[in-house]
Amino acid sequence: MRISRAKFFIISSIPLVLLLSWQHQIALEEERQAQLQRQIQELNQIYMETLNDLTETKQEKESLSHQLHDALEKIEQIERRNEELEQILFNQQQTYRAAVARKGSTMPALSLSCFTAKMYERAWNRLGAHGLKGTGEALVAAEERYGVNSLIIAAIAYVESAGGMSRLAREKNNLFGLGAGGANPYSNALYFSSKEESINYVASLLSNSYLSRGGRFYRGDNLVAINVRYAADPFWADKVGQAMARIARAACPEGR
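The chain above was modelled as a monomer; its predicted structure follows.
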């Protein structure tokens, strides 16, 4: 009888043991899941922090890349500007040396002097050529537009207009004696609305008619060649060349 009760107790205890074991397993599983969830959250946090770091690094890299690109562009611009300045200085020196060596009459007229408006205004002040004051910008612009050396144009104007003080220069803005021929030179001379217009006209005339192969008056590429059809005075080219030397010396602070 006692054995039967023991068996009964054991048998009846089995479900309870199983239930307790099942509950324990559930508790362990829940604990594992909770632990896994915490690990997942930690990993997500680490992932987000890493992603933010990568994003910031990428942005910094892009910013540095843009700065480097801008710096390289500025360096290229500076290098190009330096090359331009070196070429300008070279052209100025070549023109100056040719002029003061009295070779202005034979130097190529289709060349760049790169003299500045300030240089011409300095020259007019030093030479007392008051009638030519304010023409510096027009001389520079004419050289840039037509390719005719502006020192040559300036010297022709200086000679033909007596430093801008001739009657044609004062009353007709005609700095080059254009059209002043025949029995009544003053009446026949061309009228210009401004001295700038006169400078542009003669620069275009020289470029197209005197210095371009096939041009109506083309005889060569220098003042001696221009002299043949431009002026009756056979010494005109030499006089203009001498004026180039005077203007060049007066235009440069170190000129002598």
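The chain has a mean pLDDT of 91.
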